[in-house]
Amino acid sequence: xxxxxxxxxxxxxxxxxxxxxxxxxxxxxxxxxxxxxxxxxxxxxxxxxxxxxxxxxxxxxxxxxxxxxxxxxxxxxxxxxxxxxxxxxxxxxxxxxxxxxxxxxxxxxxxxxxxxxxxxxxxxxxxxxxxxxxxxxxxxxxxxxxxxxxxxxxxxxxxxxxxxxxxxxxxxxxxxxxxxxxxxxxxxxxxxxxxxxxxxxxxxxxxxxxxxxxxxxxxxxxxxxxxxxxxxxxxxxxxxxxxxxxxxxxxxxxxxxxxxxxxxxxxxxxxxxxxxxxxxxxxxxxxxxxxxxxxxxxxxxxxxxxxxxxxxxxxxxxxxxxxxxxxxxxxxxxxxxxxxxxxxxxxxxxxxxxxxxxxxxxxxxxxxxxxxxxxxxxxxxxxxxxxxxxxxxxxxxxxxxxxxxxxxxxxxxxxxxxxxxxxxxxxx
Length: 428
Description:
Elements (H helix, E strand, L loop, with lengths): L1 H19 L1 H12 L1 H15 L3 H10 L2 H4 L1 H4 L5 H16 L4 H14 L3 E3 L5 E3 L9 H20 L12 H8 L1 H19 L6 H10 L9 H16 L4 H25 L10 H9 L8 H7 L5 H15 L4 H6 L9 H20 L18 H7 L1 H43 L1
Antiparallel strand pairs: 1-2
Helix pairs in contact: 2-7, 7-8, 7-9, 8-9, 8-11, 9-11, 13-14, 13-19, 15-19, 16-17, 16-21, 19-21, 20-21
Function: The phosphoenolpyruvate-dependent sugar phosphotransferase system (PTS), a major carbohydrate active -transport system, catalyzes the phosphorylation of incoming sugar substrates concomitant with their translocation across the cell membrane.
GO molecular function: protein-N(PI)-phosphohistidine-sugar phosphotransferase activity
Protein name: Permease IIC component
């Protein structure tokens, strides 16, 4: 017990150092700032993907499907655009510089290093492939680099100085011209360097080196546990973990899932092997990456207004496995205070499900529940009432483990909110 407390204290100490770091805090606050976009996209994702055939037929027949699917396309599918602006803005502001100008230059820079190509009508276009979650890590790197270069150039006073009497908006715009030119040259150099390699772009380079440690993994239980841990760790580092893991392991996992689906459809006994894609959703990733559904429920009991509101907004999407609003709203990225449960809870759920399945308490998963099926319902579809009941136990377990970690964070936030309110009353 003492060792655990000592480890937790060391982790919190390291976390304090990270929080004081301008770059780390800018990433954390920048990700939190895009929460409205993510929550809006998540809500309409639920509306669009509700798994009722009659409802889906209605959307298609009335033409509403094209409208309900649009919010997700301009929010989560292009989240890197919002992130690169937000982080650059926050970091520049922390150095007392014009954050808006830094954010605009960051968007431009991100688009410079993003591959373009010809569309069917021969016009130039940018694929959304790297504008969404796959480009998130590059977006963070570009935002930090742009903001830092922008601040450095201004600190050295290498900018166009305007005479007195010029409106502040015009003065700030001209001050950003020289930094913009310098940053463009840097981004062109980055694009040119990677274009001359086998990776062709910095996006592909980052994506490939993240994938490499996973390429040797197979479909075994140990491999599955490694993938579960990797999914959370990658998300902690700002890389979309599920996307990376699925892109590498999909070729191995899909045949296993199809084998179980075929056996179920033909009324045969299910093969008693792992169906990682189903297990990740049903067990390890209940409520989304990190099995954060318990954290969402814990937020409903928060004292801090910020977390109580976030809990109300994220608990329903979490029931459908959509927890990006929670991950970026908390945020979980680079949040060492919640790293232990973020990695440990899904691993524990995976281990318990492995044991329960191996001894015959739980049946093998059928692999037929579609993505986005609500918790408990997905368990009933994929394994019957036993799996559904086990999911309820996993939700309780997630809540019990996350709560003490979250409680400390909530108390700190509540003290800050109280102090801010008291200062406001004194000032008034």
